[in-house]
């Protein structure tokens, strides 16, 4: 299936290895038999948490993101550690970043946010039954949390105030879930 589109790795090497990301450079054989180069970022994967309160509001974060030199509004999220179960990671990240724990967790979907240049995937979870607690931010991590309604989030997306792709997709899922149009 789809063999007429498949590219096959012929050779490859790590072009750069940092503390978090790796840049892979591979030679591939194209469907027509020619070869080409593919450079992409190797990423361990991450989780995104949609923390939903009983009143229908959600918990969001404001965090500075260095590559784009600005503060972004986003859902809690974080990198999956080696051999860590994604749900365990989601539960850990929610508590570390926001102080909240949740009694009810549901898997929403997996997204691939940069398919042209990264193998990163994000597993999205809906968290309900939220209980406040103390956050435990990582060293060098600075953020603030706040509540918002899903309609407000959708308006901020329309206005360009929310542009983070995981948050945009999460908001669209929540809109469908809360309207009863999509079941988990």
Automatic annotation (TrEMBL):
It holds the Pfam family NUDIX. Keywords: Hydrolase. It comes from the Bacteria. Belongs to the Nudix hydrolase family. NudK subfamily. InterPro entries: NUDIX_hydrolase-like_dom_sf (IPR015797), NUDIX_hydrolase_CS (IPR020084), NUDIX_hydrolase_dom (IPR000086). One of its GO terms (molecular function) is hydrolase activity. Residues 43-170 form the Nudix hydrolase domain. Coiled coil: none annotated. GO terms for cellular component: cytosol. This is GDP-mannose pyrophosphatase. It comes from Noviherbaspirillum autotrophicum. GO terms for biological process: nucleoside phosphate metabolic process; ribose phosphate metabolic process. Its cofactor is Mg(2+). Signal peptide: none annotated.
């Amino acid at each position: 299936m789809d063999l007429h589109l498949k590219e096959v790795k012929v050779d490859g090497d790590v072009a750069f290895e940092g503390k978090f990301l790796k840049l892979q450079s591979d030679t591939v054989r194209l469907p027509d038999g020619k070869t080409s180069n593919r450079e992409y970022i190797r990423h361990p994967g991450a989780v995104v948490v949609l923390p939903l309160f009983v009143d229908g509001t959600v918990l969001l974060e404001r965090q500075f993101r260095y590559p784009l030199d600005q503060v972004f509004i986003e859902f809690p999220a974080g990198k999956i550690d080696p051999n860590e179960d994604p749900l365990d990671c989601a539960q850990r990240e929610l508590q570390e970043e926001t102080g909240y724990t949740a009694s009810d967790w549901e898997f929403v979907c997996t997204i691939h946010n940069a398919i042209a240049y990264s193998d990163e995937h994000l597993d999205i979870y809906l968290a309900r039954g939220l209980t406040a607690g103390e956050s435990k931010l990582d060293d060098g991590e600075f953020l603030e949390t706040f509540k918002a309604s899903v309609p407000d989030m959708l308006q901020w997306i329309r206005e360009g105030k929310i542009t983070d792709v995981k948050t945009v997709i999460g908001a669209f899922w929540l809109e469908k879930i809360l309207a009863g149009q999509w079941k988990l």
